[in-house]
Each structure stands twice: as structure tokens, then as C-alpha cells.
Amino acid sequence: MKQILLVTDGCSNVGVSPVVAAAQAHAVGITVNVVGVVDQGDIAEFGTAEIEEIARAGGGLSRLTQTRQLSQTVQMLTRKTVVQTIQHAVQRELKHVLGASTIEELPPEKRGEVVRVIDDLSETSRLRVALLIDASASMKPKLHAVEEAIRDLALSLQSRQGGSEIAVFHFPGSAYGEDCKLDLDWTDNISGVHSLFPRLQMRGTTPTGPAILHVIDFYQKGDYGNRKNDETDGMMSDYVV
Amino acid sequence: MTTSFEWTLPRGTIIRGKWKQGSYRVDRLLGEGANGKVFLVERERERMLYALKIGSDTVDLQSEVNVLQSIARQKQKRSGGGSRTGAFLVDVDDFRGSDGKEHPFYVMRYIKGLTLGDYLVRNGKEWFPVVGFNLLGKLAELHEAGWTFGDLKVENVLVGDYGRPELVDYGGATAFGKGVRQFTEIYDRGYWNAGTRTADASYDLFSFAVLCLQLHESRRLAQLSAGLLPQTRTPDELAKLAATSAALKPFSGWLRKALYGEFANAREAAAAWQQWMHRAGTVPASAPAPRWMKGLFAVSAAVLATTIYWLLRSAP
After folding, report:
1. Where would I find the Protein kinase domain in this sequence (chain B) (predicted)?
2. Which partner for B119 in B51, B61, B159, B168 could form a disulfide, CB atoms 3.0-4.6 Å apart?
């Protein structure tokens, strides 16, 4: 199962529409979830609408949350999406086997077994979550909370029975014209990672759409991290403790 | 975790099941779990009280029902069948709400009691050792059936007469070896960097230790949690808090073992607790000296020392 989890606090303003990008992700089997971080009600109405639309196009869920609730929200969305993805797959089978198209159509006595299968698969299936972090200027005070949420998510995923990996990106990248930067390649354990966002230079633009496309690319070339190791300059070397 | 289940059911509402037509009259809201709300209801005709949990997500709620059923089955098997725990779950059905949507619900035995915090406020802290012991017994029973309770906290323990506790809200109950399904940060082993979130016996025992801190030192626990950075949250900090608490000092050793996952299982933890409980019961607790008296003593000792020092120095 593949997920992108976008954490942002505002509107995209450069490049391809993030809604189109999310639809592309969905088309190749990647679910896109979006968490909007709002602290002083500082998200514009337009931003809220965009967040919802990105998630809808990406086949995922969206939530607005305050910084202090970020960890819980991130985990809740990840878990719910896993269950939903499995549920959709199981429901397709339901039609063949039981003639019902949703679980709700089944009488309660028959639901138990189906839900047991969903729970089991949710716990044991392999899961990859690419975290895509908006690092535009306004997010700066929230990055600590973001990092904590990522570590907390990693801990929960580690406790699953199925293999789970995360990767972390931020956007825009530090170099001029760079839409997105890999901070952490696929890993199942980040406890040894010192700092996820060392010395970030915040810039004003928010290229959400291009960044999503970048992550889709990353998913599709499974060996991205190894091949481009040299080009990721100082960022990667910081992870070696 | 939040639900999108925002509406409430006013007193007198009749909840009729879509499949089995069981009919229940709402009395009042009892509480709220992560997956839905729990109401006190009366079954029509029978005039018996039950607790009814109603949610918005069929899969989430059914998953809870599965847990309850399999715990009941396992307990029944162990006790050789025909045990009263079999009647824990009474009915599972759907209800069409006033919003036109169908909501899944299940009905279970109504447990009369106060939440653990309220019970100790009302009946006195002297009940704490025995309630704690009984609670460890409940956890041991659950663990022996292969389950971790998961979301153990003050709100999820109801205490009936004579300190008999019951666990409520099985939304976090998880089979050993799987990732704990629901937890509350401050009670969570992972949050305190004390281990994984994989379900095992010591996960619950860790939460139990935090629950003791929460009951006796809630303010200092909240301050501790707010004051530490994610990477500096450790079981050491909790153990330190326990060791410096007047109320918890007698069994800070027990808490330490629970915080560091050193008990093999809940039975062992209960046995250790029992030893402490008896000691605490037989040795009449001498009233500790009030703080002002200790302060006064320190001051007078200092004055005495200074006087002697002066006497010695001024002596020819």
C-alpha cells in the first residue's frame, strides 16, 4: 500500500495544480492524504477548499488540525486510509461472494468475519508512507511539531506486524528552482536519525503540485535514493550518527 | 482520535434495530469513546438497564464487537462454559438516526459505578491499594486470553461497590503482537520513549503505573509532560516523579518495575502489589511530620550549629 501524506498550512502558488497532481497519484495507486495545520485560524478559506480537493482527487482523507494535535491527526489519517484501502478491496470481493456491495448491507452476524479479514490485512499488509512537508516561510514555527509527529508515526508503524517504511520530503527545496527535496529515504526505523530538517532555508513559494509529482516519480523509480545519493549533498550525511 | 459523530440522542428517544427489531429507550449519555457514544438505555418490555454504544463507522464498531466476542469466547472456554461473561454483549444492530443515516450500535451489560478518579475522591484514597490490586487481576485475566487492553486510563476504569473495578471501552484492545489500536498519549509507552506500541502485557502495566501517577500527582505529571521535549521524555522522569511523591513513595519500587517493563506478566505484578498492600496495611502509617515542622527543625538546627561555631571561635 502506498500513501503520500501532505502536511501544509496554505495554498500552492507555483506550477501544476496540486489537485491534478493528486489525481495522477491516485491513478497509479498512491493514496494522497492531507493535513492542514492551522493555529490562529490563519488558513484562508481558499486554502481549506484546496486541502479538501487534493485529498478527494488523491482518493484519501483531509483534516484541519492545530499543531499540538498534529501527531494524533497524522496517525489517525494514516490508519483510517489503510483500513479504507483494504475495505475497498474487500468490498469488491463481497459482491462476488455475498452479493452485497457494502459491509453495511450485510446483517450484523455476517459482518464479523469480513471485518476480521479487514483488520487482519490492515495490520499485516506492507505499507509505505511518503511524508511531504510544506516548508514555506509560514511553516517554520511548526516544523518541530511536524518532526515530532513524523517520529511518532514511525514508532506506531514499527509496532505493526506488516513491514512499514516512511520517507520524508520537504518543499520547496533549498536550491533555486528546486521544487522538492528528499530528506530521508525509505526506512523502517528513524530513531537513529538526528534531525530531519537541518538548516532549512525557508523560501516563499509553495509548489505543492510539482512536489507531489516529484514524490510520484520517487515511488516509481524505487532506487531513487541510492542513485541520487551524491546529488543530495550535505543533507543525507547529517543522518549518519 | 476524533469521530464525526457529533449529534446526541435526547432522553426518551427510541432506538429500534433495523435487523432484529430490538427496541431501547434512551435514558442519558454515559460517556464517549473514540468510536462513538455510550448511552444508558432501557430495553422495552424487559425494563432492564443496558449500555448502548452507537457510532458512525460500521467497520470500526464491528471491530470492537469482534474483540468483545472473542474475549467472551476465550473466557468461556477457560471457565468451562456457561459463565456470566457470555452475556456481556447483548445485541448488535443498526439504527436510522434523525439525520437519515444508518448508525451501527451494540448493546452490552450496564456497569454501575464511578470512574476511578471520582471513586477515590468520594470514598477516600485508602481504597486505592485494593482497587489497584483488583484492577491488576482484571488485566491479568485479559492478558491470559491473549489481549492487551491498550487504552488504560482513569476514565476507562469504573469502580463499583467495595472497590470492584471493571474496564470499559475496548476500542484499544489489541491481540498480543499487533500494533496497539488506540491509546492516550500520556499513558502511552511510546510517548515516554519506554518501548514500542506492540501489544504485550507490559504495555498495560506501563499505563497502569502512569494511572497511579495520574491519580496521586496529576498536576506534577501534567507539568512534567508539558515541560519535556519529545526526546527527553523517558521512564526515568516518571520514576523520579514517583520517588519524590509522598503518596506514592511506599511503592515507588513497584512503579519503577512497571515503568521499565520488568514484570514478566500481570500476575507477577499483582503478587508484588499484594505484598506492598499488606505491608502498608499492617504497619500503622505514622502521620508524616508537616512541612512547616521540618522547616522549623532545619532552621533551629542551623541556629544551633552557628551558635556552637561562634562559641568555639570566641572561646579564648
Report:
1. 24-316
2. B159
